[in-house]
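**Fold in tokens:**
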Amino acid sequence: MAGIAAPRGSKSLWGLSNPGGPQSLAFCHPDSPKLPVFTPTLPKFPWILGSLQPQESPDSPKLWVFVPKLWVFTPQTLFFCPQTLCFPPQPLSSPSAPQDEEFYLVKWRGYPSSSNTWEPRRNLRCRGLLRQLHQDLARAPGGGGSVRPGPQGLPPRVSSYLVQKAEQRRALRRWELHLNSTRSHRGRIVVENEVDLHGPPRDFVYVNEYKVGAGVALSPVAAGCECQDCLSEASGGCCCPGASRNKFAYNEAGQVRIRAGLPIYECNSRCRCGAECPNRVVQKGIRYDLCIFRTADGRGWGVRTLQRIRKNSFVMEYVGEIITSEEAERRGQVYDRQGATYLFDLDYVEDVYTVDAAHYGNISHFVNHSCDPNLQVYNVFIENLDERLPRIALFATRPIRAGEELTFDYNMHVDPVDAESTRMDSNFGLAGGGLGGSPRSRGRIECKCGAAACRKYLF
């Protein structure tokens, strides 16, 4: 393949970003008529292609990638853009090419492998793709530039890692597309894993609202308010919060202004006010772009925000399958053995129902615990006013920077005075020891939040 000219009419190379974002591979693509073509003297055909036999078709889906002191085997079909990388182990004989210049074997988009060309790095603009390959090599077991090249290529575990990494990225990209096609909220979801080879979770279904389990019945709201302007008329007791003898929860910017522990009553489908009513916040869903990412400290998946979030703003709702407390007790024993914590007791007034987000849930399924969280739980009532079945909303406790991980306290406490005034329990949260109307005996789970005031155990 050495010395093959660029395809007819080719132009300079640039990186055409793939919709997958930085975690996906980009296409390389010809674009400008002034492409300098180099014809370096490279090792002979069998050495470049390793075990690829000469009688195999040039369009074979197998390609060898040569890196300093490393060989990498990659099945071409696993990549959005099957680029291969070549760093010649000896000075190039081409007088126009600098000594030890890095060359890349490029698979041109829309052309067969027989049209592959060797291009110097300065002709390429796929910065993210190149950086990604170097990162993968550094993380590969036995990689990092310590293995010298040979006719047999890289150690099998290094090659296997790179192939698995390519498969993983494609799987995560498909999952990301599925999540974004399933979500009903405005905020976009991005998925990243640059830590290990874990792919999308199995047996998890993304839902946008509660899934009602056996033995649970939701009663639709029977009445709504007649307000023309809910914010200005709230003091008169006309709006939904006033009708339930509670405070108006939001300011004009939609930020919560009541203390944690007090309930939020939003306007519902029977109210006269429209969609722009300031008392419709949680029901509008997630409006921030969020990223599901793999943590590097052993906490599994986590969630971080891709946008700045103002203090007291609604971030997300905790949804899952609503089950009875009896069913929760049975499932809890199973989850305890797995070290999982997905059961959220709905013990606003009494411990009757639980939200199980283990198999059905939204992005909150991946939010980690912290003893110093940046999210706070509020009980919200909208289309169902049964106090045993509140919706669980998470609001920002402080300004949150873009790129910061989102967390909430799995073992939350509220002011006992507020709890008494609203008839709710002062202890509530994910099901653990001492939570809810009927305390459950749970194994202690070690906390890995790393906060300065960490309690060392979740429960």
User: Anything to note?
Assistant: The helical segments are 45-49, 127-139, 156-182, 230-233, 240-243, 325-338, 416-422. The longest strand covers residues 375-381. Residues 156-182 form the longest helix (27 residues). The domain at 190-429 is CATH 2.170.270.10 (Beta-clip-like).
